[in-house]
Write a structure and sequence with these properties.
mainly alpha; single chain
């Protein structure tokens, strides 16, 4: 019987490059939050309904969590910690995707072509993708925590 070897670790970018990446993620998230909540605001998007208000709190929490996790990564980013942070963000993202699916704050009746079915498919794919992301991040966290406990 062949002996299996643990899969080799993927090389990481140098720490300064990772810090730049985390900082860019923070800035992009802040920008996205500003676009949705301040200017021009979600209200200017013609196919969004007032039901967006039922999703906005979770959206804001999701963006804030992503910002907080990336700020934490700037300070401290061993692989196990990064996997844990990414899992937290993925779980919140799944909750947000599920909320968007159940609320469905879209109305395409004013457009020349009704995109409702396409939008529902995209939202469902977002939920499925988010669920896969949660499982993937959970596996990654287990692997990295195991390696860290073993001293690797």
């Amino acid at each position: 019987m062949a002996e299996t070897q643990p899969s080799p670790r993927r090389a990481r970018a140098p720490r300064p490059a990772r810090i730049v990446g985390y900082a860019v993620a923070v800035l992009v998230n802040i920008g996205f939050w500003l676009l949705v909540n301040v200017w021009p605001g979600w209200e200017v998007v013609p196919f969004l309904t007032d039901d967006v208000r039922r999703v906005l709190g979770l959206f804001t929490f999701s963006v804030a969590a992503s910002i907080a996790v990336n700020v934490a990564f700037i300070v401290y980013d061993p692989r196990w910690f990064k996997a844990a942070g990414e899992l937290v963000v993925a779980v919140i993202g799944l909750a947000l995707a599920w909320r968007v699916m159940t609320v469905f704050p879209f109305d395409f009746t004013g457009l020349s072509y009704d995109l409702t079915t396409l939008a529902r498919v995209v939202v469902v794919l977002g939920v499925v993708g988010s669920a896969i992301g949660v499982v993937t991040n959970l596996v990654s966290l287990a692997r990295e925590a195991s390696r860290a406990a073993a001293g690797g």
